[in-house]
Amino acid sequence: MYKAFLIKYAEIGLKGNNRYLFENALRDRISEVIKPLGEYIVSKEQGRIFVECPDSYDYEETVEAIQRVFGISSFSPVVVIDSTEWEDLEKGVGDYVEAMYPQRNFTFKVMAKRAHKNYPMQSPEICSKMGAYLLKRFPELKVDVHDPEVRLTVEVRNKSYVYSHAIPGPGGMPVGTNGRAMLLLSGGIDSPVAGYMISKRGVSMSAVYFHAPPYTSERAKQKVVDLAKQISKYTGKMKLFVVNFTDIQLYIYEKCPHQELTIIMRRYMMRIAEHFAEKEKCLGLVTGESIGQVASQTMQSLASTDDVCNMPVYRPLVAFDKQDIVDIALKIDTYETSIQPYEDCCTIFVAKHPVIKPNIKTIRNSDRKLEEKIDQMIEEALNGVEVINIE
Ligand code: ATP
Ligand code: MG
Question: Roughly what angle, to the nearest 10 degrees, separates helices 190-200 and 218-235?
Fold first, then answer.
């Protein structure tokens, strides 16, 4: 029955003179997600976006796709009446109520909008006449103009549109309106959630994954590709840089105190990530770290990692408990993939008793033990990168 969707957005409405940029980005992003599903027409008018559906389309699939577009506060499935004549309008709205609400013991209010000021009736008149018509056709209904259970909205444009319920959107801002960041994406629970959260603020994503073959398997890498695919349903297409980290890891293992391995490794991950971030014109790095979650995420450890970064490091989960992170992972459907038991390049070389409160100076001293070969190794890791385009 539904032939269109009316998209509403909240925050981007606040952007003053730049508003059209946000609206265009939202329109383009909606077009992008529904394009594979059919020939929809997406248009922007008067503070909202309309999606007109092709004659045959899959309702559930369309709703799911739209629900993943950041910037949407809510959207309403709309019935289109191919006329603006009053009799057609009455019949159309009445049929809508009959079809949508088999139980008609609710209170309602009619709301009306007209796009053309030369339409023979003004909005309040449309509301009262339509209300009266509905009460006559469905005597079980009751009007409540203050707190109705159903708000029935009628919009008269070149055609007429009726809708009465709203599906929540994800909120946030359209991807691409706030620059780009580089996500350090591991196969764990946290980093996909971190990428999702930053992207929700309008940031486009690129990602980097460090693997350590043969210590980590092809299947572990595939898991990261799968996670990237899942979050790209929200973030849009992204490039995934897969860096072979084995030699660097072995070298750190050989030269540095084992209890500092994770921290020093993390410093090199950051440095290499930053290299690709610059190439991709990213404005920051994103990680899934959270204060105190593990030894390498105490405030001292985070400071030791930040020590080598020139770019801002965004850690959207920094104050989240694990369960809060898991809840989001479940919501965005990354959890099941994340908990697949494949080895992680960091856990393989991990020490039994890692430092919990590393001293930056001590870490720098250990880092210097790598001087001889590390630049060459980084160079090789950069050159050997595999780039995967995630659509
Ligand atoms: P996650 O669930 O995201 O793996 P975690 O709790 O396992 O996080 P760590 O393994 O300490 O935490 O990693 C902290 C952060 O460092 C990750 O959230 C991720 O951003 C980054 N990171 C860790 N390992 C890798 C890797 N192999 N490739 C890319 N980034 C990584
Ligand atoms: Mg991890």
Answer: 20
Number of CB atoms found within 10 A of residue 322's CB: 12
Integer CA distances (angstroms), 123 to 76, 119, 195, 333, 346, in order: 20, 10, 45, 43, 64
CB 78 within 8 A of CB 161: yes
- Whether residue 175 lies inside any domain: the answer is no
| Local confidence band at 15 (pLDDT 50, 70, 90 cut-offs) | low
pTM attached to this predicted model: 0.92
Evaluate: CB of 23 within 6 angstroms of ligand 1.
no
114 is in which domain, residue-wise?
A: 4-170
Q: Which of 150, 146, 60, 63 has its CA nearest to residue 104?
A: 150
Q: Are 193 and 70 within one domain?
A: no
Atom of ligand 1 nearest to the CA of 208: 29
Helix (H) / strand (E) element for 13: namely: none
Q: How far is the C-alpha of 238 from the C-alpha of 62, rounded, in Å?
A: 22
Residue 249 and residue 146 in one domain: no
**What is the tally of helices (H) and strands (E) in the chain?**
14, 15
Q: 72 CB less than 6 Å from ligand 1? A: no
Tens digit of pLDDT for each residue in 195-225?
Answer: 999 999 999 999 999 999 999 999 999 999 9
Q: Are residues 195 and 148 in the same domain?
A: no
Look at ligand 1, atom 24, and give the residue with the nearest C-alpha: 186
Residue written as token pair 């030894």: 295
Cross-strand pairs, 48: 45
